[in-house]
Amino acid sequence: MRENNYFCQLIGIANASSYNDTLALIHHKLSEPHKGIIFDREIPKPNDRSLIDAILNELTRMRIGAFASEDINLTSSQTLNAKIRQALDPVIALAIQKERFANETIRNNFIAKLMIWCNVYVDELDFSGKEPPKCLFYGSIKKHEFYFLMLLAHIGIDVLYFNPTGDTLIDTLDENNLCQKVILGPTTQQILPLMEHVEKGVVVEKVTTFARKATNELEQTLYNDTGIYKPWQFSDGTTRPIIMDSVIEDTLTYWNEPARLRPGFKTSQKTVYTPIFFSKISGVYNDHNEYFSLVDKLKSANKCVFYETTQLTSVGYGQTRSIQYHNMQGQGIPQNTAQYNQQDLYSLAFCLNPDKTINRTTVKEHVLYKKLLTLRGEIQEFILAKLEEVFSPSNTAFFNFPITDKERLRLMAAIFTAEDSLLNLIDGYDFTADVPKVILYLNSRDTFNTDDAMLLGLLRTIGLDIVILSPNGANNIELVISDKFINQIKLEEFVYDLPLKAPAKKGSFFSKLFR
Fold first, then answer.
1. What's the half-sphere exposure (Cβ side, CA atoms, 13 Å) at 215?
2. HEC readout, 292-354
3. Quick check: pTM over 0.85?
4. What does DSSP say about strands 278-282 and 465-470: parallel, antiparallel, or unpaired?
5. In what residue span(s) does the Putative component of 'biosynthetic module' domain sit (predicted)?
């Protein structure tokens, strides 16, 4: 239906930095003379009254739907005029079908608008090069504007429509799927001006070498649907954790296995379906040394953080220690000491959009976010997307308490100020390889507060293994997280005071003989 040119709408924003860079590069390219057209959230209405009247007068003598055979000259190129005449027929026919114009006057005004836009914007384009000229439209679009983009695509112009809000208008109009749909990432309700993205972006022009192309082709062949995964293949992807319904033998069998070798593992495009442990092991073996040996095996994992407390967020608001950095320019970020005060906590509210998504630009400028700025860019985006997943209504059944804005702010503060060992687990997580682990040994009857529960919920949503060891079997995690999501394992007996110690080593024959 169109020539070998692009017509694409790119929905949402996956990575703000990459999005800015892309728009900056396209804007840079199309700003060169005769290379393209740029529209920021609207196409200006025609205001040449004499030209409008002249076209309307001509339309009364033309056959609507047969413009290809009419004498219409909107540009200085006869070849381009012929393309425009041929492109007008299918676009206007679709508009008449969809819009059901109330009368000829309204219909002709619409047609005149398309023709004048062609005269204003298309006449200046250079079609003599190897690549077709291009059009960039950014922001929310109106019906008449989309018909014009469709007209440009029929003429043979590359058309890129950046649709950050995910507006579905095109789906109702483009019945022949002329426009390709590409999902970049989550949508946003806030539309920043195009130039704000451009000014934050970095223009980097690259030329791909032949060796690089050959490497890319080899990787496509080797790693595409073969079950073989290269390191960091999904570094710009995401996880979808699958909780394993397991017994203690399964835990020991798969504990140190990479995600790709666990039952239920699969990938789909950029999503890694990761089988994880989210288990509570209540009680101990009758032989306590055997139990301590179990704890040692769990702790021996390569990527593991071990706690003997329910307090994962112990450096947060409410602690007596003073804040280490707060609105102090140039001060270094201390390790493991990122406290925050009440003002910091409540000011995070300005980082939430009305739909409870996170404003990437605002949050990265917040004082509490400083620590996360040291993480890789794709991991920062991954964490923010997982926070939004925890915030979403589909996740309400996970917790035994409601998630309000207060909880959202406290969870944001908890992960932004988390200790280094926990952030390092996430930052070093290669989704198809070793699964990072968090183990909690709870010898007392301590319970979890909502902040710690939400942080555990976030870590589970990220795709970490979480095991809670409770020798006394007391209720703790069940009070804050629905037991439907907890894999319960019970051992032989409950012990109400069992301090953690290393398992006793069995002495040899000679050690017994010469003691």
1. 6
2. HHHHHHHHCCCCEEEECCCCCCCCCCCCCCCCCCCCCCCCCCCCCCCCCCHHHHHHHHHHECC
3. no
4. parallel
5. 5-223, 249-494
| Count of helix runs (H) and strand runs (E) in the chain | 17, 13
Q: What is the pLDDT of residue 148?
A: 96
Cα 348 from Cα 367, distance rounded (Å): 9
pLDDT digits (tens, 9 = 90+) for 101-130: 999 999 999 999 999 999 999 988 988 888
What would the two tokens of residue 161 be?
A: 């429509």
Contact 471, 283 (CB under 8 A): yes
First to last CA, the chain: 92
Burial annotation 244-275 (CB, 10 A radius, 16+ → b, else e)? bebeeebbeebbeeebbebeebebeeeebbbb
Token pair belonging to 239: 């996880």
pLDDT digits (tens, 9 = 90+) for 336-393: 444 677 888 899 999 999 888 999 999 999 999 998 999 999 999 999 999 999 998 8
pLDDT at res. 312? 87
Number of Cβ within 10 Å of residue 81's Cβ equals 18
Sequence letter at residue 91: V
3-class state of residue 370 by DSSP: helix
127 to each of 116, 119, 120, 134, how far by Cα in Å? 19, 15, 16, 10
Residue 175 has what pLDDT? 84
Q: By CB neighbour count within 10 A (0-12 exposed, 13-18 middle, 19+ buried), where does 69 fall? A: exposed
- Percent of the chain topping pLDDT 70: 87
* 20 C-beta neighbours (distance < 10 Å), count: 20
Q: How confident is the model over 130-159, as pLDDT tens digits?
A: 889 999 999 999 999 999 999 999 999 999
Structure-token match 């609105």, residue found = 327
Distance CA(515)–CA(109), nearest Å, equals: 105
Q: What does each C-alpha distance from 153 to 41, 75, 136 come to in angstroms?
A: 18, 17, 12
Tell me: pLDDT of 180 over 60: yes
pLDDT digits (tens, 9 = 90+) for 302-342: 899 999 999 888 544 333 333 333 333 333 333 444 467 78
Amino acid making up residue 94: L
| Rounded Cα–Cα distance for residues 167 and 146 (Å) | 12
231 and 430 Cβ atoms separated by less than 8 Å: yes
- 410 vs 352: CA distance, rounded Å: 13
User: What's the confidence (pLDDT) of residue 333?
Assistant: 36
- pLDDT of 401 > 70? The answer is yes
